[in-house]
Amino acid sequence: MKTLCTPLEHVNRRLLLKGALTTAAGGALMNWGGLFNSDAMAKEVKKQGKHCILIWLQGGCSQFETFDMKVGRPTGGPFREISTNVAGARVCELMPGIAQKMDKLTVIRSMRTSQVDHGGGTYSMHTGWTRTPAVRFPEIGAIVAKYCGDVESNLPSFIKIGSGGGGAGLLGPQYDSFALDRDGGLPRNSASRFPAEQELRRHRLRNFVENQFAQDRSAEPIRVHQEAYDRARRLNNVRDRFELDAEWAKSRNNYGNSKIGRRMMTAARLVEAGVAFVEVRHTDYDFHGDNFEGHKALVPPMEHAWAALLEDLEARGLLDDTLVVWMGEIGRTPKINNRCGRDHYVRSWSTALAGGGVKGGLVYGESDKDGVDVKENKVTEGDLFATIYTALGVDPKTENFAGVRPIPLAQFGHRVVKDILI
Amino acid sequence: MTPILSLRVVQRLEVGHRCDFYTNSRLFRRRKLGALAMINRPFLLAVVAVCLIQSTSPGAEALRDTIHRHVDEAWKKNNVTPAPLTSDSEFVRRVYLDLLGVIPSYEEAVAFLDDAGSDKREKLVETLLADPRFGVHQSDVWDMVYFGRNPPGYGTNKRDGFKNWLRDQFNQNISYKKWAGDILRAEGNTVEQGVPMFFVQYKNAHEDATQAITQQFLGVQLQCARCHDHPFDKWSQLDFYGMAAFVARLQVVDVGKKKLTTFAIGEKNLGDVLFTGPASQQEVGQKGEPVKPKFLGGELLVEPELPKDVKDPRNFPSGKMPPKPKFSRKDQLAKWITSSNNPYFARAVANRIWGQFMGKGIVDPVDNLSGDNPASHPELLEAMTKSLVEHDFDLKWLIQEIVNSKPYQLASLGTVEDTNPGWFERARFRPLSAEELLESWVLATGYDDVLEASGKKPKSRFDVGAPWVYMKKYFGSPNDGVGNFQGGMHEHFYLNNGEIHQLISEGKGGLFEVLSKSEKPWEKRVEQLYLSVLSRHPNPKETKHFAEHLRAEGDLRNRLKEAIWALMTCSEFRFNH
Amino acid sequence: MQIKEPVQRWQLLFEGDWATSVVFLGGSRRIAAGNKLGEIFVWELPENPPGQSKAEKKDSEPPDFAPVRRLDGHTNGISQLRASSDGKTLISAGLDHTIRIWDVDASASGTEIVVVDQKNRERKARSKSSEEKEKILNAPGTQVETVAATHILKGHNGWIFSLGISADGKRLISGDDSSLSIVWDLTTKKEISRWRGHNHTWVRSAALSPDGKTAFTGEYGGKRDNFDIPAAQASLWNCEDGSLKLDLLKLWTPKVKDEARTDSYSYLTVWVKLLGRGLVCASFSPDGKILAVGQGGEGGGKIHLVDVESGKILRTLVGHRLGACDVTFSSDNQYVLSSGRDTTVRIWQVADGKEVAVLTKPLGAKYKDWMHSVAVSPNQEMVAAADIAGLVHVWQLKS
User: Fold this and answer.
1) What does pTM read for this prediction?
2) Which residue of A26, B125, B526, C34 has the fewest C-beta atoms within 10 A of its own C-beta?
3) How many Cβ atoms sit within 10 Å of the Cβ of residue B41?
4) Could you tell me if A237 and A95 lie in one domain?
5) Residue A194 lies in domain
6) Nearest CA to CA, how far is A281 from chain C (Å)?
7) Same domain, yes or no, for A215 and A279?
8) pLDDT over 70 at B308, yes or no
9) Measured between CA atoms, how close is A301 to chain B, in angstroms?
């Protein structure tokens, strides 16, 4: 006769190992605030392997207003360059913070991708593949959750902040994102509607029902269903991990008093808590009109927060194990249109990586004098994703299945850009 | 033909092809099959011969018995102990869900359980097959096959025309041969006739359409052969493009006159695939000939010579039905696919229907009838295929036979862990679809009665108890890429904290109201609760436990809701078993 | 000002893509215009185009005429030009954070041959034979005198978006992208006062009352984040000490509580109706009684006529299909002229708000680009507008 042990017993044992307190009723109370700063906690996080933070620039940030300046050319625009802490490397004057972090960055200026619209570009720059009806490709967060995530953790392995869509595709809904809204609010229905006592009472009743059913049955879906229920429920134990007002009060000056600043700080705290993958979205860079004023408004708070994020991760000893990816779905045209804007462009644009697995202080690839084409070392979606997975210690050739069809993580024919990897 | 086919299958098993992607257990099973087949080859041939003779002579064995016989033989050969026959309560719930897509109501469950007739199961199946909800549910199932949750193409999300048409095919018991052909012929428009919606998905994507058609209608997976000769199956790029040529001339035409989006499929007189042969066969400086239509594994299509002055518009003008071409390649494709002689068509659908009710196809995956993918019960598949053809592709008949067979009616008990046991020695487990879940919850809680009593009506069939978009997203595709069930976190957010609680309404006519107002002792009410939600009587332990829960001091309102909730969200409800 | 069948007399070419500003220098035939490269050219137009009598051949392109001077110094685009009423002093503000003061008649520091019609040449050469192509493309350029600025005013650390001048030419106001505004004394070249507006906004428009005592600033900040949009502002200030005289936006939205003015989501829907995507142009009437302000961006370009004393909106001129770019008054106080992103220059009656003339066809047709700046000659006979295709259009109002 099979009885499922109550999930509470599982949870308690694990919590005791982690040194948490328990309430009289058997529920768990994590003293997380204290644990953040303990060496034991930090070591635990390091042992868990790699993390990844994706800074997603919705709409397509202009390479001409960030890393690929063409000052004085007809395609250049009114911004000027400033020097950085890497000799010979210059960035847009809108990024003074990042200019002092160039020694941590690998900037790729030779991106050459295939999807020029938002939908197609967002898909291909999240999955590394072009959309096809036959296969549901998983997005990068789901992949990192599967190969780098900690199954034992009460926290989800894949969190999105202010970003939607995507999906774990053929990896299965277990690896779907836990999506916080743009203000860090928890997903729909993730909070218990009932007081703890009532919730526990109905939990016990449900356990009884499940045990009755599982008594004489061994089919796998019963176990899967129960585990998923537990996992969702365990989130109640860690809800306070997402209440970061106090943390924000401490960090606001570093990250800049902006919403993107707060989102990036949230990402740093979640990574510190052991989450494998966090995606932070900043929107909307799609400046078909008034491009310069648009970037003037959006880039400074973003880059300030990004520089603070790198600083923060390094100070807490997490940067070597965290890959910070910075990209959007498309670049912008060299030609300035008659709305004072730039349109979509994917023949030559820029992304950037920092942290675990990649060299810092490197500007990889080049575009021509007007930014119309890649001059050398082009990097496609497949190349970029293969490189990212390799940096995270995951073999890009690893296969999952869509029906009978083996699907590697990165596109066929990908090239791992070894020059930028440590 | 059949004995030769079997021989070939047997030979392949002996050779034992490389199959990296199969799990070790599958490999082991295949080798075992092969070994056994070697030993029993003459016996096998004899059995097959006997089958042939038996199925064509009067007083022949009913298919349901043939099914039992073959499955039983395999159990014996492989030393597998099947589960016992299922209880009436498990049966009634299972068959309602499989045929109508919804659990039985309290009254329906009680009526069946109390019926003392010895042939009540057969009678129930007959009744359900005649129920109009049968067509609605099968339409949902096949809609998933043809469109999935997120079909490509503009305008494919609203496909009531297609789904209503498909429902009618099932309820009027139109032969599959006819309605599959209708889909491929794609005549009419997407609002009135519905069928053209299939091709609307593949606007300007003839290769994608080819992949879909061969997979869904023929059970052949050609997608690898799109870009290179298939790595291990026999198909080449020329085979792929030979099939793609049939649909290369199709165009999606917007024929809507008013606000309603309406499409039709036009076919041009001219046009070919943009493929002339694999790179290795190209000659330098020579402009190759585009691949002509060729039936898969068969002959080139014979096409009449068209007059020299035949011309096509670049795009068919919108707003009116496109003209028919002088010679339609797609109609030829439809004719060939749905012919009784087509070597794949009947076999594919027989296997698919088997898989729908038994958990996995005799060939698994259900749409990969590759030579390299062996059948677990090859003779059974041949027998089913042959019978289906003889019954003119009457799917209702086939379903009736399968559902009335002993293997279908096994219990879900036992120590076997596989979700879909390969020897069919235990009932399969399948997660209820989002549609089934919602309709069953609504029925169990009496929510539609509550709505009616309060004068409200849901906006559409599924906009009840949560936005359908949300339900579809989190319950719509609960499987990974190879079909394993995975419970996502978000499913449980909904189940634990979501609008499901709205369905457990206190309103007039709902289950909550009925139970709380009833004057019967709690034990009786618990029984009604179990019959309403899980379609069975509770065992004594359950009765006691629930009665205690409901009798306890204070907070009866929430306790009763919790009791309903626990039964609605547990595994027993979540799956069909 | 008299308007009767206005006709375009000139279409002056000068490269540098975006012509950003244009002013008349004292008379109706002396024009200065600046572009996004930071170049300022001066033209001295003849009475009639050479070889042509007045108003001949209306349908062919108006003739070009070469500039005579180029004012050098700015290293980034010009945002605004202002001139003294005698036309002798020109003031420019730019994206290079500086304001430069020019003596228009100063002796040249040199001469240079410049090609100001490169794009035009390429267009003409396209359909010609290679021989003719060479001839056109390599034709000699124009000789211009180059002049340097007499003074550079430094005080800003960001893009200077806006510039305003008092009627007597003695005071100047400039506003930048850190919401800083500075009032300058042009005789001493020193600051009189400075103030900062709201956080995260840019001073998109600034104007001085004719007596130089009151200043208007229009602020707008663009999107910083999702829903983190600072409210645009419209304010009147005292020039002597930089104190706030009237918060016009507050005056125009009396029903909104003070706390709600920082709620960028709900407040946004309120102020957008009045300020559009910010007020990007402003001008006081010559008698100082009325202030004209225009909405920018890609919404509608409404122009409000505001009573300076009370701050109330007297009437609103509705016509521009996209945002307005520039606004100015005729010297007789009767008319307002505005130019906009819909490629039109419109003339309105101040008294009743009626639109009396549109100098171009809206969007498409012959003019494809924003009319970025508009100016009226002191004698009210000529109107000039600079568009972002690199052209300066000059019309005669009475043919």
Assistant:
1) 0.82
2) A26
3) 15
4) no
5) 190-241
6) 10
7) no
8) yes
9) 33
